[in-house]
Design goal:
The protein is mostly helical and about 180 residues long. The model has no long low-confidence stretch (mean pLDDT about 75). It contains eight helices and no strands. Helix 7 packs across helix 8. It has a domain of about 60 residues.
């Protein structure tokens, strides 16, 4: 993977853009071969451009890593060390996250209305909710190892062609 210049064999040129709408415009104008976007941009792009091919990256991750049904996390929660060491706080935090996950799963059609209450310009179509695969579980050592194995497979070299030592980077990534 490279971030600029011309890609060589088994490399892709990565171009970052502001948001899903900007990525969709590049795909629509045939300026890029594919885009990687999260929800709701994935559903919006699929519908707007009538695309019939897509890759569920969470499912591909699980298949590539025999991840026992686990998929890579799409977001992270960072907690100050003092709070992370407080078992009562952490149990309460993860309890609330699990309850939130349940509510989202059971009230997909209400998520758009709730999001608009918080963010006036939010457009989060209800059909994209199940595709988000929201999971409020804690990232354990096994999950961290799966993510590192995946990164080794998909991005073994940096933009200059140097090998990436993902094992050494693990502590930097997961703290």
């Amino acid at each position: 993977m490279i971030e600029s210049g011309d890609p060589g064999e088994n490399q892709v040129l990565v171009q970052y853009v502001a948001d899903g709408t900007a990525a969709r415009a590049l795909l629509s104008d045939n300026q890029v071969d594919f885009i990687v976007v999260g929800e709701p941009a994935a559903t919006a792009t699929k519908n707007a451009l009538s695309k019939t091919r897509e890759l569920n990256m969470q499912a591909a991750y699980a298949a590539a890593n025999s991840a026992n049904g686990n998929s890579y996390p799409q977001a992270g929660l960072f907690v100050r060390t003092a709070l992370a060491n407080d078992g009562t706080f952490m149990a309460d935090l993860f309890g609330k996250l699990a309850a939130n996950n349940t509510w989202i799963s059971e009230h997909a059609s209400e998520v758009t209305a709730k999001a608009k209450q918080l963010y006036e310009s939010a457009v989060f179509p209800a059909p994209s909710i199940p595709r988000c695969a929201v999971d409020g579980s804690r990232l354990n050592i096994s999950s961290q190892d799966e993510i590192i194995a995946f990164l080794k497979n998909v991005m073994p070299k940096d933009g200059q062609g140097n090998n990436i030592d993902w094992d050494s980077a693990k502590d930097l990534i997961f703290g």
